[in-house]
C-alpha cells in the first residue's frame, strides 16, 4: 500500500513524494530503496503537485436536479421548483446523487465537501462508498412549524444515538437550514449540541432580502443578530452566503469567529443579493471559505470556476482590481477549508494528510507557467487536474475514476424519473 509520486513539480522544484497510509511521509529530490508490494508509482513528469480543494457549502445530491429549473428568483425557485421534487426523492436517489457529486468533485480536484442535505442514512452510505471526505450534517428544516420541529429534534437525537457508518473519512455534524425554515427552538438546540460535542453548525445566513426583511419583521433582529440571540454563532459555525450583512452584523460575526462559506456562482445566478463584501469580512479576520452550493443553482461542482468568479465579482462590483488577490482566493478554496474541516491537509509537507492534486502543466491553459497559482485561479479548470489523491488514495488517476459509468447510469435514470413526476 502507499503511493510514490516521482518527479512532480512542487513549488517549482522536482520532487518525489511518498505517501503511506493517509499521510505524506517523505518529500525529497529522489526517493529510492525497497518499497512494499502494492505500492502505486505515479510518474509525474510535467505534473505539478498542489493541495486539493475544499468545497465549503454544497447540497451534493442536488446533482440530480441539475438544470431542472432555470432563470427563476430564489424563493419561487426553492418553493415552486426545488422543494416539490426534493420531497419525492428517495434514499436511493440521494445516495446516487451524492455519489455523482463525489465523482464530479474528484474530477475537479475537491477532496472534502461540507454538505447539507436530507436522508442522512443514504448520505452516510454514499460518503463511505465514494472515498471522498464528507462533512455531513443532520439538517433540520421544520418550516417554522413547532410540532414538526419537535418531531425532527427527537429524530435527530435518536439518529445520534445510533450513528450509521459513514466510513473513516466522514463525520456527522449539525445543520439548521436557515432562520426562515427552522424554528428558534431547533436552532438553539442544534447550536448548543454542536458547541458541547465539538461539532460544526452549518446554516444558510442572510442569503436574500426576503430572509433579511422577514427576520427583522418577525424577531426585530437581523438574521445574524437573531442567530446570535439563539447562541448559534461561534467558531464552530459555518454560515453560507452572508450577503445581507450590515457593519454591525460583520462585527458580530467577527467577534464570534464564524467561518463564512462564500458561494459566488450560486449567489449571482439566483441574484440573491448584493455582492458579498469580502473586504469587510477580511478586515475582521473572518475565515472566508469557498463553496459551490448545490448543482441546481451553480450548476457545476467544479470549484475552479468559483475561484475565478469569486475574484471577478469582487473586482468588478467594487471597482477595485486589487480586491481578493489570487493567493487569498486559493487559500479560501483550499488551505482554510481543510483547516476548518479538520482534514490535516491543505499543505504538501511531510506529516500532512495526503490530500493533493497532480495538475497537468501540458494543458494549453497552463502554458506558460509564470505563476502557477494565477493559472489555477484564472486560466485553469477542473479539466487540468490529472490525478486526485484523498487521504492517501487515488480517487482519480490520470483522469480515470473507477466505477464512474455505473454512477452516471444510475444518476441519469433517477433524474429522469424525478423529472417525469414533476
Ligand atoms: Zn445552500
Residue windows where pLDDT falls under 50 for at least 5 positions? none
Mind telling me the CATH class of the largest domain? Alpha Beta
Which molecules are bound in this entry?
A: zinc ion
The fourth-level CATH homologous superfamily of the largest domain is: Metal-dependent hydrolases
Give the name of the CATH architecture of the largest domain: Alpha-Beta Barrel
Inertia-based shape: globular
Briefly note the structural class of the backbone.
Answer: alpha/beta
CATH fold-type name of the largest domain: TIM Barrel
The radius of gyration over CA amounts to 21 Å
Number of domains: 2
Strand content: 15-25%
Set out the fold topology.
Blueprint: E1 3-10, E2 13-20, E3 23-28, E4 40-43, E5 47-51, E6 53-58, H1 74-87, H2 91-107, E7 110-115, H3 120-130, E8 133-140, H4 146-161, E9 171-176, H5 184-197, E10 201-205, H6 209-219, H7 223-229, E11 237-241, H8 247-256, E12 259-262, H9 264-269, H10 278-283, E13 287-290, H11 303-318, H12 326-333, H13 335-340, E14 356-360, H14 372-379, E15 385-390, E16 393-396, H15 404-420
Parallel strand pairs: 1-4, 6-7, 7-8, 8-9, 9-10, 10-11, 11-12, 12-13
Antiparallel strand pairs: 1-2, 2-3, 5-14, 14-15, 15-16
Bound molecules: zinc ion.
Structure report:
It is a single chain. The protein has 422 residues and is α/β, with parallel strands linked by helices. The protein folds into 2 domains: 3-50 and 354-398, Urease, subunit C, domain 1 (Roll); 53-340, Alpha-Beta Barrel (TIM Barrel). Helix content is 40%, strand content 21%. The chain has 15 helices and 16 strands. The chain has helices at residues 74-87, 91-107, 120-130, 146-161, 184-197, 209-219, 223-229, 247-256, 264-269, 278-283, 303-318, 326-333, 335-340, 372-379, 404-420, and strands spanning 3-10, 13-20, 23-28, 40-43, 47-51, 53-58, 110-115, 133-140, 171-176, 201-205, 237-241, 259-262, 287-290, 356-360, 385-390, 393-396. The strands form 3 sheets. Strands 6-7-8-9-10-11-12-13 form an 8-stranded parallel β-sheet. Helix 4 links the parallel strand 8 and strand 9. Helix 2 crosses helix 15. It is globular and about 65 Å long. The N and C termini lie far apart (47 Å). The structure holds zinc ion (ZN).
